Amino acid sequence: MGLQALIGVFAAAGTTREALTALLTEQEEIARAWTTAGSADALALIHARDSDHLEQIILRLQRTKAVVHTRTQILLTELVSRG
């Protein structure tokens, strides 16, 4: 399956939730995404082939006007999984 990562997306000022949803929906590697009450505006679950592919996804997001920056965490061992 490659690797999975969580990408925190920090949106540019004035970016609407609808615009952010549209941007994230366009990225086929994003399996799920949520708005957050944390420091990032959104959190996206990514499925990538390898680290090079993950880097391409990150750079693609960062090149858009809607994204100021991202923060990425690569997922390692799943500790708990409930339906």
TrEMBL record:
Origin superkingdom: Bacteria
UniProt cross-references to InterPro entries, sorted A to Z: Dimeric_a/b-barrel, Tscrpt_reg_AsnC/Lrp_C
A Pfam family hit: AsnC_trans_reg
Sequence ranges assigned to domain Transcription regulator AsnC/Lrp ligand binding in this UniProt record: 17-76
Protein name, UniProt field: AsnC family protein
Organism encoding this protein: Saccharopolyspora shandongensis
